[in-house]
Amino acid sequence: PPPRAPVRHTFEPLHVTPVGGDSDDGIDWTRFAYFTESGDGTWAESFTKLLAFKQTQYDKVLSLDSDATILKSLDELFLLPDHAVAAPHAYWLPEPDTISSAVLLIKPSMHEFKRVFKAMYNRSNASEFYDMEVINDVYAGEAMILAKDHWVVSGEFRLKSHHKYLDEGETWDPDRVLNETKLVHFSDWPRPKPWFPVTEDIYHRTVPVCDTMPGSAHKDCRNRDAWNWLYKDFEERR
């Protein structure tokens, strides 16, 4: 397991700030206490995070999905130059400008909140859509891209090929990745999110397979060990 530096956080209640009355565009911006969407309960209220765009009492807001584990302090993100949104590249997708909404450094403003809300409203007739799609409707190609060491998805440890994650000429080393990464986002379908119990069948279907080492009878189980440690560590700290 990677060494875990002490991370101290101070939390305060977050209140949604009303912004007066009906606006010129016909939308009452005061009525949104939370956002929700019918469908899979895992994602139904994920749109609530988008209210961070209107928390104008703060200079910057760091929004993190709850299905993630912080391995190192992310405080340095608040020292980045001002930008409407900074986010990691959704590196597993083919589109080069697609960003992930799992980590969002936001500079709140009503202008940006309205842009995001209108993008969500424009998708409201779709049978199903997600907050990541809304964020990309607005910020794909515009967002500041965070450095790769800020995050990785847990499913990366299950893959045989890591070419989408690695830079050119870089080789995959699960120990190094786990030691350098600041945040890991859990994504291992069909394994449920880490706060849910997992059946033995699902565990064995999703656990990384040990690799056979060329010219040796030994197996390389570092991917499996790292992946198991992430879930165990999350469970112990929750």
From TrEMBL:
It comes from the Eukaryota. SUPFAM superfamilies: Nucleotide-diphospho-sugar transferases. InterPro entries: GNT1/Glycosyltrans_8, Nucleotide-diphossugar_trans. Transmembrane segments: none annotated. This is Nucleotide-diphospho-sugar transferase. It comes from Aureobasidium vineae.
